[in-house]
Queue: 2 jobs
Job 1
Amino acid sequence: MEQVRNLLIRNVLPIMSPDTMKEESADSFLATFGGYMKQIAAVAKHDSGFALYESNVAPIHEKYGDFFSTVAKITEAAGIKLYAVIYTFVDNYYGVDPSYKTYNANGVANEYYVCPARESFWAYLKSVTEEVIRFPIAGIILLGNTFVRQEFCFCESCKKEFSAAAGIDTSFTWDGLRDNDQLFSKWLDWRAEKMYNALSGIYSVAKKKEGLDFLIGVDIDPEVGYEKGAFRQLGQDVEALSGISGHLLVSINPWSPILPSPGSPEYNIEIEKMRFIDNITARRRKVSFKYWTLINENDFDTVKSIATRFKATKIVSDLDFPEKYRIWREAHLSIA
Ligand SMILES: [Zn+2]
């Protein structure tokens, strides 16, 4: 675990999560590395859907139900800044709940995600946030802010709402959507607006805590189609989302996990495709970058180089690829 120490010395903000810490407890991790830390992030609402603290609104994780609260206690005592990670629409608990399931146009649900357009789920996420800001935290990181693919969500509620908004029959089909440019563009706008409203709502709760840093995660991936793909496939209007709290967290190559070396032709393409970030920082909004793991020196060099180029505020990293990584990747690249 020498590498973790290196990350901390390099001022990376690592995310502690039970599934990337390989059975190591929060206590022992912090006892080992606390001395090197000025800041750390820890998962409060896990992608499994379970709370890792004593929640009154979310289901509590059976084994790690005090993970986040333990981290909060230790970091507060040690004077270490803590960021809480909340997974929004990546939620395996409500992903199987008939009220929140998300479907593609063939009626196939993906149980690892929930429908991002349900206002009752937004209210639930706000309640979770209300609980999380009571902990001694310096910031919140929202991850999993995503539709599965462009053909999501075809749940009954989305079909009903979109057809009313677009003035079409509820029995509209995917082919009917895609073959009509005007309608298809309405579909993409409608989804992105839902995402924007959902995340704005969560921020409206979080900002009650004064001085809280609030990072909104988006996914910029070559195979998904970079910024345009994030909008089209994942429902993320990156520039609009950057305006919610003024701090965007860009995941680099989350679904195409090969990072090009600085200076290579692939690297230059990557930089070219990220130039939209200049427009965001020019408006005095902050941008930070995230990658799954920066244990590998070459990956760190690439992310560091991109971060420097775009005047990033922070570099965030998981400690390892999360347990569900393959499942998420297959879903977003539609290769399942
Ligand atoms: Zn839906």
Job 2
Amino acid sequence: MLTIVAAIVATIPMFAQPLDFSKTLRLNYIFSGTDKDQSITLAELCSIEGWAGKRVNLDKVPVRGNGQLTLSVRSAEGADFDKVIYKTSFSTLFQEWQPTEEATKLAKGFENVFLAPMPSEETLVTVELFDFKDGHVSCSYSHVVDPKDILIRPVGMNPAPYEWIWKGGEDLASDPKSDERIDVAIVAEGYTEAEMETFMADAKEAMASLWAHEPFKSMSDRFNLVCVKSPSKDSGVSVPREGLWKETAVGSNFDSFYTERYLTTLHLFQLHDLLAGIPYEHIVILANTDTYGGGGIYNSYTLTTAHHPGFRPVVVHEFGHSFAGLADEYYYDDQYSEYYYPDVEPWEKNITTMHDFDSKWRSLVGEKFRSDDTTIDWRGKKSIKEKIAVDLYEGGGYQSKGVWRGFPDCRMNTNSYPSFCPVCREAIRYMIDFYTKEIAD
Ligand SMILES: [Zn+2]
């Protein structure tokens, strides 16, 4: 009997789970460089109790993104770190900044934060950034994480006050089942302590707008929404072009990259410190202002202004970027003329350069759809009723030529159109499934 027990104990390490889902490893990095070069540096490792992220498709990514984080362990003693145990893809503000004129003149560093389940053994972490032009790895950095490292800083013991507004459509008193559902945190930015009721009302409006859009509407049971009541000292957010700087929860500002409407935060460490201890995977930051603006960065965050009349469509549009990795479907006649290249297929599912259209919506071409929403949008335009075929419509991804979208209009194109186009709906559906169901290779 004793011998059998000893034999079982001895075999345990062979089958040990390489990830400990009772904890989160938070990896803080600085991505820095100019328009020509880039480097990645580790800033700090943190640990947080619990893991709210994916439990399925651990070694896969749903879309390529502009960068990836990969965790690998040794498949056998003495082997290289040859077995991928966790993978995630992302985009960054740093890479958006690189094509700007400022990047030709100076080097800048940007904070980036990634979450993974805590490894149970020595694990190689690799961060890669991809080149916009050809998709090749432009920068790569690897380091070994030992979960026993005494300098992994525990955080999240005293989280900001938070309140659930959605638990998969179940009673709000029920268990959030964060291991099964996609946890979205809605964060207050520029709301003072006295304005938290306004924030909660704004968060509920964001939720109502999201649930008014397919496929979020019919798949809302896969989500949890938690509101983070992070108070700001000042009311409103910073507007540098007016010389207006405020002390706010996540330190956001307009005029990012000197673009008036671009509202972002550079303070990712601060943002994630604020969220530590609260189950979250995706982040929506609501800014307490009526000035139009916002941004959404794939697997980083959505940031949008809550009191502009376009709030409802814009928050959903930006979540299309940050959650589903969708591209903008609008275009200018002269700007960003070299953003997408004819011999590279963009990884975003809702635009194509026709380089590899088979990987896109070819199977939907010819199928007719109409807007599935009957609401009247914020400009008072009614939704389109006639059926329109999915096809190739030239213009998208900021370019009027050389990039095509699948439908004349979409939530990723204009604020006045009431719904996502059939191509985007399919892409969002896939993303929701990816985080909640095992996907076949
Ligand atoms: Zn679309």
